[in-house]
Amino acid sequence: MATLISQAKEVITCDLCVKPTQQFCNNCQLSLCVDCVSKHVDKLKYQPHRIVHFKDRKVAFPECEFHSNQRCEVHCQQCDVPVCLKCMLDLHNGHRVKDMPEIFNDKKKKLEKETKEIESTIIPQYKKKNEETKSQISIIMAEFDELEKEKEKHRRFWHKEVDTIFNNLGSLMKSIKTNILSALNSHQSKMKNKIPDMTQTVQQNKKILKSNNVCAVTDYKSQLEEYRNMLTDIDVKVPSLKTNIVQGRELSLELEEYKASLTQTTLPSLTEEVSYLSLQKLLEQAKSIATIPTGVNPLFHVACAGVDDAWVSGKDNTIRRIDINGYVRDTVPTTCQTWPGDITVTREGELAYSDANNRTVNIVKQGEKETLITTPQGWHPKKICFTKSGDILISMATSYCSRNKIVRYQGHTVKQEIDRDEDGEPIYKGGENPLCLVENNNGDVCASDLNADTVVVVDKSGRVRFRYDGTPAMRKKSFDPGHIVTDSMSQIIVADCNNASLHILDQNGKFLRYVDNCGLENPAGLSVDSEGRLWVVLFHSGEVKVIQYMK
Q1: I want to staple 71 with a disulfide (CB 3.0 to 4.6 A). Which of 30, 61, 99, 208 is the partner?
Q2: Residue 52's beta-bridge partner residues?
């Protein structure tokens, strides 16, 4: 029984079907069953075929690369190469060898076994793991959505508590004001009522003096002392509002006996927290770990879509998804008249792009394009950024680029316009270059204004926090800020086209590092992947550099 099972396992099937093989084509090196012989000959009828019984088959031996007109009939086990008889007497003298047909059959069995394992075991495992990860991503996204809802619930509660504090303060101030004004009004009323009495006394006294009536004069009762004793002034004082603000620790206020405070205990800043979690620091010297050819020239934009994938776009209307090895994984044709003004990836991992000519911002869901926003007449969308809160930031320019501004959308509704400072002066300079923009972890909106050769950072309210003009980097050529991006450490990274380099700043605008050692000729689009690596577009060459700048 064991012998029969062993023999059954060794059955060799036809290369064209699953039946047991009986014949062999020596010319084509194919195993064939009886039914498939005619099919094979008919299919390749213009080439010769030598059909023999399978046991009489001959393996086509390869030619020796060292000895002309010699066939390698054996395989050297020591050197793992096919060799001819002359080789066995020369370089491979004394080495253990196997007949080529035996090697052929052994290798073929191994190949079949590997193929079966990959197909039946490994691929299903990968598919299962892929589905598990996909499910995990959905669960994590749902949990973060719930966390966001809980945060907003607490925001409303905290706002309610703050409103209660100030409502109580307002009530106390109103009560104190009422009491003080009541006392002053009463005092004023008494003073006012004395004046008619004194006026009447003066008139009566003048009549007595004119009449020379002895009795009237002698009977006169003086009220001078009463009038001299003027009512004592009421000592009133408006209470002062005492406040104490220790940045990041305590907010407190005090009015008489009333005191309220909001206290924060050793809560690290977002940057410190992320730093603690990631334990990342800037490398002394950044290093290029990959150069990816895209075949698109010139190339403008890049948006990372995972660990080793990114969307890219250039001077055509097609957006391509490439991996770190340069393989094109997907393509998305657009209806842009020229090319996409910008591309990005949403929190859900969906591709979005701007179309300046049609004044739209679009999103691609399951291969279908959907218009999210159409900008007002006369304003064209340039660069786009999806924020953590779900808002969309769009840099816009007028038709003739005389004005630039940033607009925040919540859905289809304009929520905020970042255009002018507290003095009514334009924050951004008009000109032909669009504003590149990104949101930082602390909510700041960072923009590179190439028209002014400056990076401008505003807070959530649109108030200018700082400007960076490249001076701390001390370069020979002028600062030429292009695309801009932020990372998990809240660091701001700006492409300097004029100096073929990158500037790295902290979230407060302090210059940290200058990257100019990775062959960044004409750097354009920037994006940071989930591993913290920087993907840099090279405008003219159409390549993408992947740079490790953190450890």
Answers
A1: 61
A2: 24
